[in-house]
Predict the structure.
Amino acid sequence: MGDRIRESWNTRLGFVLAAVGSAVGLGNIRRFPFQVGEEGGAVFLVVYLCFVILIGFPAMLVELSVGRKTNRNPVGALKMFGGGAWMYVGGLFVVMVFVIFAYYSVVSGWVLRYFFDSFTGAYTEDPAEYFVEISTGLDALFFHAVFAAVAIAIVALGVQRGIELAVKVMVPSIVVLVVGLAVYAFTLEGASAAYAYYLTPDAEVVLSNWHLVLPAAAGQAFFTLSLGMGVMITYSSYIDEDRNLSKDAGMVVSLDTLIAFVAGLIVLPILFTVSDGPSTVSGAGTVFVSLAGAFADLPYGSLVGAIFFGILALAALSSAISILEVAVSYLIDEADVSRFKAAVSVGFVAFLLGVPVTYNLVFIDLLDILAAEILLVAGSLLLMVLVAWLGTDKAIEELKKGIGDLGWMGTTWVWLIRVPVVVVLVVSLYLGFVDYAEFLREDFADFLVGEIRQLQEEPTRVSPIAYFF
Ligand code: TRP
């Protein structure tokens, strides 16, 4: 590190809001409600809650203590915490920034587009056709660029003047608007059918599909809490010694879970009011198509649509900045690059990687399953092993600084991570690999075969580039 003074949060609240802003994102609103409804209602919810409490919470504590202990970006932090080879795990985190940001920004670009079009009503006429039109090609590319540019600008402004200021406005707005929409959704005709679909326990689904439900629940828990990629290490590297880390972790985990839960109380009643519920989770566009269609038929539909996509855009933005910040802090700390240059170069490369996604949506699954079910789980697993088997004393000492003597909780916490968490993660990781292999063999292979066939039939269509024009 050069002579630059390392940045830090301005206020206590700033850090918590930034962490909540990172956690609450597309994952909470776009995926979670559908997953619950489809994969066993209340039973899935219980499985998921167990994951969040028994695995997400300790994993969050691990990241927070590593970050605060070292005051470094994930690469520097792991090098300091565990020694030489561990910095490659930090390197893996930095690579993941690009994998996740690339598709996250494309999907967020759609959200922006839908937000603006709520005012014109453009998506109400033929929602399915509209989605096909805007989700790929130049339209998608443009909004992907706009979204990425805003995220880059916030990160470039710095920890206090950029990220902290932005989340202080965005996170409270998200909470207020989410509560408002939930109240509105409660008054809709389809509310009771939706609640039944959402919460009726169906143990059968979970039991017969456990090999899919388990990695999905684990992946979602990590993804939604922004764990396994060093986001929390990075954010907690900007805090002071006097924070109570378990309290902060508890706050982030519970707010995130609560907002995901309430998102279901919004999305599902809307869908049940205009039709008989969500068709299927699969396909990145389902939520967009079905909800856009619904807003056309609802009381105050265009206002509700604007608020809904507005919330989604804020949630996506406050998450996207945290993803970029991991790689940006790495460049600032380790390569002594200025924040502005780091933000622009990281953001630009991540933007470029998102370009193929705007060519064909199969790339979303290609990156999303890889990230959520494999990379984040592997990242967390490695961190857990490092901290709970190799660095426990340091981590506990760090936690103590914020909360005093941990008593029995200290040792329970460590054993929880050492054995059950590690076992569950290894199993989830294995199942995630199996799931991903199946995706590659089926959906992705179909896509490639289709592309090749098209090239043979239409030799003039020389390259995917032509698609954009
Ligand atoms: N948690 C965010 C969501 O639910 C996404 C996110 C932000 C994320 N930062 C992350 C996911 C880091 C994994 C790793 O949408």
